[in-house]
Amino acid sequence: MNNDVKWMQLAIIEAEKAKKIGEVPVGAILVKNHKVITRAHNQSISNKDPTAHAEIQLLRKSGKKLQNYRLNDCTIYVTLEPCAMCFGAMMHARIDRIVYGAYDFKTGVCGSSIDLTNSNNFNHRAEITAGVLEHDCKKIIQDFFKEKRY
Fold first, then answer.
1. pLDDT tens figures, 69-115
2. Which residue out of 14, 16, 23, 55 is catalytically annotated?
3. CA–CA separation, 124 vs 66, rounded Å?
4. In this model, does residue 5 exceed pLDDT 70?
5. How far apart are CA 112 and CA 20, in angstroms?
6. Is 55 in the active site?
7. Are 52 and 74 contacting, i.e. CB atoms less than 8 angstroms apart?
8. 135: Cβ contacts below 8 Å, ≥ 6 apart
9. If residue 116 lies in a helix (H) or strand (E), which one and from where to where?
């Protein structure tokens, strides 16, 4: 098993935590030097905070834990392609690599809906790896919304 798969499996566990509390099941982890630094999941509904996406929660926790707002040499693993807000925050944090599972053709900004990854609007670029455990990441979100509809 490659490391991307291993780390994405941990992000999926975070997504399951979100699902259990009625949140859209998106999970994320931050890895630095082959170690998990922090874990997070969506909490927008429970926190009554539209910015409490898994990635934003993760960046906040990671900055505090690493005592720096710059998260150089870090990789984020997230179960869903980042939105514009989350991607922008990752660029400001100087995340080196973004690995995501499911594509988001509605709001994803790493190529699915639009592509900000090569934008000249940022002073930083991150390496992007898409589709890691895509089926598993997509299924948890699809199942969540199927349950909500019934």
1. 999 999 999 999 999 999 999 999 999 999 999 999 999 999 999 99
2. 55
3. 20
4. yes
5. 27
6. yes
7. no
8. none
9. none
